[in-house]
Structure formats: structure tokens, C-alpha cells
Design goal:
Layout (H helix, E strand, L loop, with lengths): L7 E5 L2 E5 L67 E6 L20 H9 L23 E6 L2 E6 L6 E5 L16 E7 L2 E7 L19 E8 L4 E9 L8 E9 L31
Parallel strand pairs: 6-7
Antiparallel strand pairs: 1-2, 3-4, 3-11, 4-5, 5-6, 7-8, 8-9, 9-10, 10-11
Length: 289
């Protein structure tokens, strides 16, 4: 990684490692690197700020513990009255350690037998995210992302991995009849009151839903619901429907916090991905059992 890279949180088998990188503008603090003998479980992470719940999905690690209190006030609107989701955010639409956590009340993840077997045999070193590939939907990363709204099309730009980006068509078009399989699929969106609803199909089957390795197939269909609940917070609900890997649909619930005054930084994962060679053992993530 270059000198502008942000701290990258990587799970090393049964270890949690965070490498510290000098950045051009600021230095993100660090978590202790704890390496115990084989078969030792992960060490519990320290709690967040008193009275403050960190954004979802990363087990309360690293940057997620170092955010100032979110600004207060009503959710802003654009000039035409459309909810304003723009800005740099931290958080994502599911629990990136294990997607079976943080579900909509009453929901559960029930895998088909082949998918259960895949999860049991995943290895950390094979995680596409650890290999600098996109995380797909709804998995996030320890990095911020930017939401941008323009007429007819919205964009999500991710700082992590390879500066991945998504486009959400807002012009009323339908999905292609036979979309080319892609990491982020083909997305179309519309507003339901104050909630942006994003319908996505056309996924490839390459990304993992989480560090634990939950799979999916090209039959995957997601519906995301982005709601800016106030000035500083956003809720993200993602309904996952994949009859090729799961017995029934389920909805993951995530949240994000605005990063006031922050910008995305250049981060090129492939530039110095030294931790990959250290990854070993079953797939798991921060706080995984």
C-alpha cells in the first residue's frame, strides 16, 4: 500500500491483525495486534463510546470506534424535495462478519445443503475481499463510501479494495432481459416516500456475503432500502432472495453514520497486499465464533 493508504483490518485465521499505514492527511489509530497460540479464540473488542452505537458490520473495529458523535438535526432535502443521501458514510447494509446476525426480526438464514457445505470448508485466504476484489452487495468494508445523486442516476463510490463503484439508474428503465453477470449487478431505483428502494439483479457468483463465507448464485436478487433517518444517520435494509443457495428470502439490517468534513482517500489494495500470505485457517471475521 502507498503512503496514503488507510488502516486495513484483516482477519488472519484465528488472529485479528491490523496493519498501520501512514497517510498523507491523517493517521487512523490502531488496535492491538493479538497473536495467540493455535486454536485460541478471538479476543473481545473494546466497547464503543459511551452511549454511542458504532455503525454496523465490522464488529466495532478500527475506524468504527474512532468516529466523533454524529451531527444532530432533521434529514436534509434537495431543492426539489427529494431526500438528500449525499455525503461520505461509514457503515453498510449487513453484518460483514456474519450475515446471519443483525437480521430483520423474525427472519433467519436457511441455506441449501450445498451452501452449508461451502461455508464449512471456506478458507480465509480465498476470501475475494482479502484478494482485493469487490465486496458485492450488501457486504461492506472497514472503509468509507460516498453517495452521490445526479439527475437520472445515483452513484455509490467505495474507498476500499479497488475504488469500486455502483450506478443506480433512476430514469424508470427496466433491467436488461439477460444482464452480463457483475460484482454489483444491475441496479434500478425509485423513491417510496423518504426511502430509496434499489432493485438489483444480474450478479456473478464470485463474492462472499461476509468474512465467514456465505455464498450466493447468479439467481441472487436484492432489494435495498436506504433511509436517512436524521442528519447523521442512515438505515439500510437489504432483502436477499437467492433460491439457488437459500431456502427462503431474508432481510439484513444495517446502519451508517455520516463522516462530516471527510473525503474518500486513494487506496489501492493491490499495491502492497502483504497480509494475504499470512491468512490461514477457516473463514471467519472479527468477533466470529
Amino acid at each position: 500500500m502507498g503512503s496514503t493508504a488507510r488502516v486495513r483490518v484483516v482477519t488472519v485465521g484465528r488472529e485479528v491483525c491490523e496493519r498501520i499505514q501512514v497517510m498523507k492527511v491523517r493517521i487512523i489509530g490502531f488496535c492491538a495486534v493479538i497473536a495467540l497460540a493455535a486454536a485460541v479464540s478471538l479476543v473481545a473488542q473494546p466497547p464503543g463510546r459511551a452511549g454511542q452505537r458504532p455503525p454496523s458490520g465490522q464488529g466495532g473495529l478500527g475506524l468504527y470506534l474512532r468516529q466523533p458523535p454524529a451531527p444532530t438535526g432533521p434529514a436534509p432535502l434537495l431543492a426539489d424535495g427529494t431526500p438528500d443521501l449525499s455525503g461520505v458514510w461509514l457503515g453498510n447494509g449487513a453484518n460483514s462478519t456474519d450475515i446471519t446476525r443483525d437480521l430483520k426480526p423474525g427472519d433467519s438464514v436457511v441455506m441449501l445443503p450445498w451452501a452449508e457445505n461451502v461455508v464449512k470448508n471456506r478458507q480465509s485466504k480465498d476470501d475475494p475481499e482479502a484478494n482485493c476484489l469487490p465486496t458485492g452487495i450488501p457486504r461492506g468494508s472497514p472503509y468509507p463510501w460516498r453517495f452521490a445523486q445526479t439527475p437520472g442516476i445515483y452513484f455509490i463510490v467505495y474507498e476500499g479494495n479497488i475504488h469500486s463503484w455502483r450506478q443506480i439508474f433512476m430514469d424508470g428503465r427496466a433491467h436488461p432481459d439477460d444482464p452480463d453477470p457483475a460484482w454489483y449487478g444491475h441496479s434500478v431505483g425509485h423513491w417510496e416516500g423518504k426511502t430509496l428502494v434499489v432493485d438489483t439483479v444480474g450478479f456473478n457468483d464470485k463474492f462472499w456475503f461476509d468474512y465467514k463465507g456465505h455464498p450466493h448464485t447468479e439467481k441472487l436478487h436484492t432489494i435495498e432500502r436506504f433511509t436517512r433517518t436524521d442528519l447523521g444517520h442512515m438505515t439500510i435494509e437489504t432483502t436477499i432472495d437467492d433460491p439457488g443457495a437459500y431456502q427462503k428470502p431474508f432481510t439484513a439490517v444495517g446502519r451508517a453514520q455520516i463522516m462530516v468534513g471527510q473525503e474518500l482517500m486513494e487506496y489501492i489494495c493491490q499495491e502492497n497486499n502483504q497480509d494475504l500470505q499470512k491468512l490461514s485457517g477457516p473463514a471467519r471475521g472479527p468477533g466470529a465464533e
